[in-house]
Write a structure and sequence with these properties.
Elements lengths: L7 H16 L4 H8 L3 H9 L6 H11 L3 H9 L1
Helix pairs in contact: 1-5, 2-3
């Protein structure tokens, strides 16, 4: 059974969050500072080395200035 981080849906989520960050003009470091996390936190979830729980997902969306619902709608479309 494939690991959840390798699932097509989770890959879409990672792509959606990475795209949102790029569109906002932020680097991984910029977002990490906003989240008060190390840059490696952003790098690891974007590259699939770690998962985001629901509260972390919401925190990241807020840091990006995007709606968590909009991101989920994009992922599930």
């Amino acid at each position: 059974m494939p690991h959840a981080l390798d699932s097509p849906t989770y890959k879409k989520l990672r792509r959606a969050l990475t795209t949102a960050r790029s569109r906002s003009g932020m680097t991984q470091t910029d977002l990490a500072v906003r989240l008060r996390r190390p840059q490696s936190f952003v790098s690891k979830y974007e590259s699939g080395q770690r998962h985001l729980d629901v509260l972390e997902f919401i925190e990241v969306c807020k840091g990006l200035g995007v709606s968590p619902v909009a991101v989920l709608n994009e992922v599930l479309a």
